[in-house]
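Annex B. Sample input.
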Amino acid sequence: MAESSTLFDDEFMNRLNYLTIVSKHMIPGHLHGEHRAKKKTDSGIEFADYRQYVAGEDTKNVDWRTFLRLDKLVLRMFEEDADLPIYIFFDSSKSMDHGDPSKYDFARKIAAALAYIGLLNHDRVSLVGFADGIAQEMSARKGRTQIWRAFNFLESLQPSGATSMVKAFRNFFSARRRRGLVVVVSDFLDETGWDKAFDMLRYYKQDLFAVHVYSTDEEHPDLPDEVLLEDAESGKTERIKVTPGLLDAYSEVFEEHCEEVSAYCRKNGYGYVRTDTELPFEELILRVFRQGRFLG
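Annex B, continued. Sample output.
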């Protein structure tokens, strides 16, 4: 696995800058963060307007000076941004620590690139590393000054443990999060059920973009006639004889797994891309943007 100190080096930053320039020309105008609508609400920072008080409503925003002057109950209204938050979940389980380059480093670069674009365009971005539940979380940040905080957070985590997206999503979204876009970067090798986790996002009415990451040797394994396989998360081992029929059966199961994740997303109107770790990460990010989920 690559050293974390070189993960976000000068070359990475140059590729990010290129990605930012290209992405701004993909859709007329700019990124969706710059088209932020305002909505009037009873909470917020900027005062916007007054409206008549309706019996039974909370009186915390009643303008009592107006009441004393005009003998009318009116409520103060405020403006708040109507943008949707972006929740970026990246798989930090032990199964991601595989391949050259490793799936984990690739996933972190994807998460970093999406966070970078979001923060530059004033989206409210959360980063969540997950394994058997939430491994670590960077709470919602906004603005370009938070970019290095995000990079440092991503560099600080190491892959470990088993995978349970169900636990991670339950722990995170049970705290009454705002509806937004959930980006999940993972190999989706989850014995607790990636589909159950996606069902949970539907329950919480979150939008989803799934980024399916795998290494080339997982898609096309090159194995000797006999091999000792070890489960990266459980540590269990099994010695097997490798035959052409076994490799064909494996390839079929691998494709079925990818297609099941893709089909779920298509059925529910979610975004989905799949990639091996040899694809330049900026090309993958542009594929995400072309689906019109992250930009628009």
